[in-house]
Amino acid sequence: MRIDIITVLPEMIQGSFETSILNRAQKKGLAEVHLHQLRDYSNDKWKRVDDYPFGGEAGMVMKVEPIDNVITALKKERTYDEVIYTSPDGETFNQAIANELSLYKNIIILCGHYKGIDYRIREHLITREISIGDYVLTGGELAAAVIADAVVRLIPGAIGDAESALSDTFQDDLLAPPVYTRPADYKGWKVPEILLSGHEAKINQWKMEQSLERTQRLRPDLLKK
Fold it and tell me: Would you say the pTM of this structure is higher than 0.90?
């Protein structure tokens, strides 16, 4: 899988792709993450990528030309399954979307900045808009890193234990059950006996009951799905 991220601040998220699972997945050849400095595609002699908005709005708007230039250049090299714009008014990112994107071969993520992007980009170049929550960030770089991390870890082989990803919170619209490790008794804080029993069927039943209880208590909205 290849992820191309278009940004004016590549240094803001560079380190995210040089550590942990994202780094290992790239070293294994399972994923490629490429950061593209938008200013490199500006025809302005000062490499400006923003300008004042028509209509007198406050703030600056990302220009259509450099974004069109970089997306056009990338599309000449390969076909993309999605061109994603990180936007606070996009669909809210969740595990189902991460699962879907992990099946794709090539995606582009455009990081928003300033007051936003020239709307013509959204009309003609963007295929999907994604938000990571109902709040506004300085730019879309952190959102792009979140999306890339959630997607790449789902690629078979990216993590050592494939079953681990399948049992993550939200995979079945349920919160994960509690997890414990050694020691079984710490300061009198004991691990539930059922987990020490070795009885797989009863353990699985306990885990499901715990997932349902935690979801009902903490995220009842998920059960409505």
Answer: no
